[in-house]
């Protein structure tokens, strides 16, 4: 697939716009913290961000923090030579902006507890991340879905944050994720053309077991439930803004010339989408109950939605 990688890399470099993270941080809102600079410690009352947005930003940031592990997974699976290597390093350099600018924003705005955030980062990055995807096609299918899901998560978090600076920042990051998705999706289109059966089998496997890379964050389930109930990222979003557009754009259901395994995978993806629709509708009822319950009392760590 080297020629495809080269073509899509050139396409990416032609449209990717460089941007400067320091220009997106509200430095004038910042003040010194306690510690060597003898400023003031963080207090929950200082955050103007809605609770679900705080949860979303913590998940999004810690997910971005694990970039060294993602770099290792992708570079060791796809190689660091030729166009693949140029892409992996360029992608890593772009991704590296996301965690640094998000953390600077949260610190300047005093949006979340910086001590708890650092503790979570040490534990999460300390655990590392590995995926056990069986083939390079599975890895490509996974990153295609993941980049689109990440774009949507950042964009929706920005839209819900109630802070114009935050919204502009999250839109900027999600524009990067969109270009990453376009690279991988373009590659997957070519993969479907070159290896239609294997590519559809890998995609079906990835859709069936899909979990975002941040699910290992300590306390993820409780946070993800609040993010889902707030409509920032949930099964509806995953289905309507991630899986359905992707399956359509890749022409999965109209791919012809398949052998028995490819046809089976195609049918499986169709069934999977129907099942997800039913699950999303059940989850909607649970979110409504959770929101009603939250409206009548403060949220607790124990309030969780079953996965
Ligand atoms: Fe990112
Ligand atoms: Fe990305």
TrEMBL record:
Organism: Streptomyces morookaense (Streptoverticillium morookaense)
EC number of this enzyme: 1.14.19.2
Gene3D superfamilies associated with the record: Ribonucleotide Reductase, subunit A
Broad EC category: oxidoreductase
Keywords, alphabetical: Fatty acid biosynthesis, Fatty acid metabolism, Iron, Lipid biosynthesis, Lipid metabolism, Metal-binding, Oxidoreductase
GO molecular-function term, one example from the UniProt record: stearoyl-[ACP] desaturase activity
Cofactor note: Binds 2 iron ions per subunit.
GO biological process, one term: fatty acid biosynthetic process
TM ranges: none
A Gene Ontology cellular-component term: cytosol
Entry cofactors: Fe(2+); Fe cation
Protein name: Acyl-ACP desaturase
Binding, Fe cation 2: 95, 147, 177, 180
SUPFAM superfamilies: Ferritin-like
């Amino acid at each position: 697939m080297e020629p495809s990688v080269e073509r899509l890399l050139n396409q990416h470099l032609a449209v990717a716009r460089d941007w400067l993270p320091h220009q997106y941080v509200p430095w004038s809102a910042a003040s010194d913290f306690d510690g060597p600079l003898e400023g003031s410690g963080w207090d929950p009352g200082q955050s103007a961000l809605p609770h679900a947005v705080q949860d979303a930003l913590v998940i999004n940031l810690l997910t971005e923090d694990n970039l060294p592990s993602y770099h290792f997974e992708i570079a060791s699976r796809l190689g660091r030579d030729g166009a693949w290597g140029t892409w992996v390093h360029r992608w890593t350099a772009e991704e590296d902006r996301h965690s640094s600018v998000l953390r600077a924003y949260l610190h300047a705005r005093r949006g979340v507890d910086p001590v708890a955030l650092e503790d979570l980062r040490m534990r999460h990055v300390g655990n590392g991340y590995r995926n056990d995807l069986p083939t390079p096609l599975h890895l490509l299918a996974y990153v295609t879905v993941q980049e689109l899901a990440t774009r949507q998560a950042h964009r929706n978090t920005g839209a819900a944050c109630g802070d114009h600076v935050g919204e502009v920042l999250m839109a900027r990051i999600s524009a990067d994720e969109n270009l990453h998705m376009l690279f991988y999706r373009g590659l997957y289109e070519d993969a479907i053309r070159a290896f239609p059966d294997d590519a559809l089998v890998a995609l079906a496997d990835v859709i069936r077991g899909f979990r975002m890379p941040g699910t290992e964050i300590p306390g993820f389930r409780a946070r993800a439930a609040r993010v889902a109930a707030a409509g920032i990222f949930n099964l509806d979003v995953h289905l309507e803004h991630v899986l359905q557009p992707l399956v359509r754009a890749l022409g999965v259901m109209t791919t012809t010339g398949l052998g028995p395994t490819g046809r089976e995978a195609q049918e499986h993806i169709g069934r999977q989408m129907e099942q997800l629709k039913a699950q999303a509708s059940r989850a909607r009822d649970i979110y409504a109950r959770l929101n009603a319950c939250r409206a009548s009392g403060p949220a607790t760590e124990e309030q969780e939605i079953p996965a």
